[in-house]
TrEMBL record:
Signal peptide limits: 1-31
Transmembrane region(s): none
Entry keyword set: Signal
InterPro entries for this protein: AB_hydrolase_1 (IPR000073), AB_hydrolase_fold (IPR029058), Sec-Metab_Biosynth_Hydrolase (IPR052897)
AB hydrolase-1 domain span: 48-264
A Pfam family hit: Abhydrolase_6
Organism name: Kutzneria buriramensis
Protein name in UniProt: Pimeloyl-ACP methyl ester carboxylesterase
GO molecular function, one term: catalytic activity
């Protein structure tokens, strides 16, 4: 009996020692917690869609695109057709609906009118960002809003070109473009912008807006106070009406997206968070 008891005690001690050794080799719960990756509770970053306006093209956003890509955002900068509010908005809407996940829409100048219309009913659009842009109410046109307050000198700089399909296209005269559109951009760059500008159909500037999405989607606005296309007072009026988160850049031109890309990117990323 004593021999059996001794064997039993020996086996029990061996099992206990083995269990202790196993526990010492296994990682502790606190160590595991400390090394595990923190869960991502913020979700994916939105795709930023950058919409240029009249007398410009998608390359106007090059500065912002570089910064946004560096900061981990997906970016699309499509060619805005500049043919008419409804048709341009329909084109942009099809692009929005091709994107999986949240979207931030950014519009410059006439592009603001386009994003206001295109975002209506699009549940994945989380923010609208207006850069020296029109923020129209239903029934308002770009031409009407530009003339609501004094200060725009755009009309006198425009050149008309008739196209074979009967459309009148508008350009800014190249020799007047730097001072009118891009006074704070280096002259050599402003001349390149003048040469590569894309025209807008004259009828697009008089076409009334549909129901704007800013009634239901949060908006941000950047106002360059030296804008000669859309007077700063008009931009302030539209921004206040839309309850937009607004910043001003003193003395900046209508081409603020070219001259101040970091400030524009900072506002876009504020809207994206």
């Amino acid at each position: 009996m004593r021999i059996k008891a001794t064997i039993a005690r020996t086996l029990a001690v061996g099992v206990a020692l083995a269990a202790t050794a196993a526990l010492s080799l296994a990682p502790s719960s606190s160590a595991t917690t400390g090394t595990a990756a923190a869960p991502d509770t913020k979700g994916p970053k939105p795709t930023v869609i950058l919409v240029h306006g009249a007398f410009a093209d998608a390359s106007s956003w090059n500065g912002e695109i570089g910064e946004l890509l560096r900061d981990g955002y997906k970016v699309i900068a499509p060619a805005n057709p500049l043919r008419g509010v409804a048709s341009d908005a329909a084109y942009l809407k099809s692009l929005i609906e091709s994107v999986q996940g949240p979207v931030v829409l950014v519009g410059h100048s006439y592009g603001g009118q386009v994003i206001s219309n295109a975002a209506l009913g699009e549940k994945n659009v989380k923010a609208l960002v207006y850069i020296a842009a029109f923020i129209p109410e239903k029934g308002e046109s770009a031409g009407q809003l530009a003339g609501k307050f004094p200060g725009s000198t755009l009309g006198a700089t425009l050149q008309q070109v008739s196209t074979p399909d009967g459309v009148t296209d508008l350009y800014v005269k190249q020799d007047l473009f730097p001072q009118q559109f891009a006074a704070d951009v280096p002259l050599s760059q402003a001349k390149l912008m003048a040469a590569t500008q894309r025209p807008i159909a004259a009828t697009a500037l008089d076409e009334p807006s549909g129901e704007p999405a800013w009634h239901t989607i949060p908006s941000w606005s950047l106002i360059p106070t030296g804008d000669k296309n859309i007077p700063a007072k008009a931009q302030e009026f539209m921004s206040q009406r839309a309850h937009a988160h607004t910043v001003e850049i003193k003395g900046a031109s209508h081409a603020v997206l070219v001259s101040q890309p970091h400030a524009v990117t900072k506002l876009i990323e504020s809207a994206a968070r």
